[in-house]
Write a structure and sequence with these properties.
Methyltransferase, Methionine Synthase (B12-binding Domains), Chain A, domain 1, 10% strand, alpha/beta, single chain, 235 residues, Rossmann fold, binds cobalamin, disordered N terminus, five-stranded parallel β-sheet
Length: 235
């Protein structure tokens, strides 16, 4: 993992920081909203970096929640409520993260699940890690048609467009999205990344995309290289 915050964790702060991150993860996984907010606030007051709370608290929590899918004791409504809690915490943390990064942004990532895909746990997890890693993330949601991707690329000019693809049936819509971006002259300065259950390395080549990642960690690493942000705020 990106043990990005070790430098900030020398001496006593280290112990406390790790404690808060672990407690935050556990509170979110248990769906304890008040406790999660309390730990976040106390952790911040004690000097734990915002990015560390997101990366080592919210990110592992999201992975664990997604893994609980299919477990007989956990229902979908519970999983969705926990992802909602993560979103509420992110709403509070993102402005503080901007202050922490002093306006510096590693790059802009636009992400969406391609039309026909209502599945998004993996996308949400990816989003959390990109935010923690200093990217500005624009999430277009699920079931996004090619035209919507191109409209938003034109407006927001991201560095990277990440297309999440979980069903094979939607692969032709990935090709359509890439082609549309080309036709509209939006492809030159844009890196296109593909990922999710239905994507293979061969398909990435066939679709004319640039980056393929199997995990969220791999995706962040490849995107950092793609935007040339290898040395960002000492990380
Ligand atoms: C959970 C799940 C669902 C949930 C999704 C809930 C939600 N809100 O996300 C629900 C119940 C809604 C669902 C519905 C359906 N599903 Co479903 N679902 C799954 C399942 C079991 C797990 C997906 C998941 O969340 N995994 C956990 C996450 C964390 O892992 P992940 O997605 O792999 O993400 C990691 C990496 O892949 C990567 N990553 C993820 N996204 C991206 C994106 C980019 C750009 C990058 C770089 C990396 C990246 O980072 C993540 C973290 O490391 C998969 C099987 C599977 N093994 O993937 C089937 C699966 C995707 N579903 C499938 C099907 C068929 C369906 C349905 C059509 C079923 C039906 N008949 O109703 C529907 C509708 C799908 C639709 N139209 O979108 C099939 C698809 C097969 C196909 N046709 O190609 C699968 C593969 C199951 C199977 N083996 O048959 N599904």
């Amino acid at each position: 993992m990106y043990g990005l915050h070790e430098k900030n964790y020398k001496n006593g702060v280290e112990q406390n920081g790790v404690k808060y991150m672990r407690e935050l993860r556990d509170a979110v996984v248990s769906g304890e909203q008040e406790e999660a907010f309390r730990i976040t606030e106390t952790g911040l007051a004690e000097g734990v970096p915002v990015s560390a709370l997101i990366e080592h608290g919210l990110y592992p929590a999201a992975c664990e929640i997604a893994r609980s899918y299919g477990n007989d004791e956990v229902c979908m409504a519970e999983i969705l409520a926990k992802f909602e809690l993560i979103q509420l915490l992110l709403n509070e943390l993102i402005p503080k993260l901007r202050d922490e990064l002093k306006g510096a942004v590693r790059g802009r990532l636009m992400i969406g699940s391609v039309q026909g895909n209502l599945i998004d746990f993996g996308k949400l997890i990816l989003r959390i890690l990109f935010i923690a890693s200093g990217f500005e993330v624009i999430d277009l949601g699920t079931d996004v048609p090619p035209e919507t991707f191109s409209q938003h690329v034109r407006l927001e000019r991201p560095d990277i467009l990440a297309l999440a693809v979980y069903t094979r049936e939607s692969l032709p819509l990935v090709v359509k999205t890439v082609d549309l971006l080309k036709q509209q002259g939006l492809r030159q300065d844009l890196k296109i990344m593909l990922g999710g259950w239905a994507v293979t390395p061969e398909f990435v080549v066939e679709a004319g995309a640039d980056i393929f990642a199997v995990t969220a960690e791999g995706a962040v690493e490849l995107c950092l290289a793609a935007v040339g942000a290898t040395d960002f705020l000492g990380r």
